[in-house]
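@channel sequence for tomorrow's demo:
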Amino acid sequence: MRTSSIIVPLFALGGLASLAQDDVKARIAANLERSASVASIEQDSLNGVIKADLRTLLDRPGAINSSYADLAMTKVEAPDGAFKLFTWNLPRTDGTHLFEGFLLTRTPQGQALYELRDMTGKIAAPEVPELGPEKWYGALYYDVVPVKKGGRTYYTLLGWKGYSKAETRKVIEVLSFKGGKPRFGAPIFSSTKNSGSRIKPMRRVFGYAFSVTMTLKYDPALEAIIMDHLSPHRPDLKDQWAFYGPDMTHDGYFWHKGEWWFGPEIDLREPENTKPGKALDHQKH
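structure tokens (generated this afternoon):
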């Protein structure tokens, strides 16, 4: 008795896989859009599907080498190909936000996938601790700036963080790898003359009123992270971030001698003044 076999060309299998991935990406996009306007219980249910679908995309052989330009969520990737980082948020009805994320890293064996767990509520002093994927200060990352110190690469991440009905935050985070494992936060920020502390922050967090916006961006021409300077609406509201907003001046961070040096009162109309030397002058006086 003869048996027959069906031979499917490899290119056809690749096409079917591509179509399946397109379907998954479309479902992720639809569920993300829907999750922004439903109650928390339904959000959590949709979020479970989003995470399962995203894991399907990222936990397959060769995923680190694929492009995700058409995936409708916030994502950044290391210029040197070391990782791809995917983040999204669930806006809660009480004004808070739950952040979710997956970090896909390149390893000698191929790749590794980490789920990030937002523990914002359990991090009382967010600028102080080094954190891991299991305890993450959640944010939506929109840019990555690699810097090197002592032969090690530190990936400086810029992120947005919805916080409450009254306050929004932005974050300068640092991602690095120890023994191949990801760590968030590093003591590579210089202490400012008015900080009153000898402890170097592991990340920088900026809070401001929900009703305003804050610029936080890397300017490659200036080789600096440029940001709006934030001030309270009234002197008696000092340190109450929900009452802070841009005051039409700018600050910056310049990579200098293995640290991000803080430079206050930057005049963006005179680029020649926005140099590390100027930041150092402010630090000394």
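heads up for whoever presents: The CA atoms of residues 140 and 159 lie 5 Å apart.
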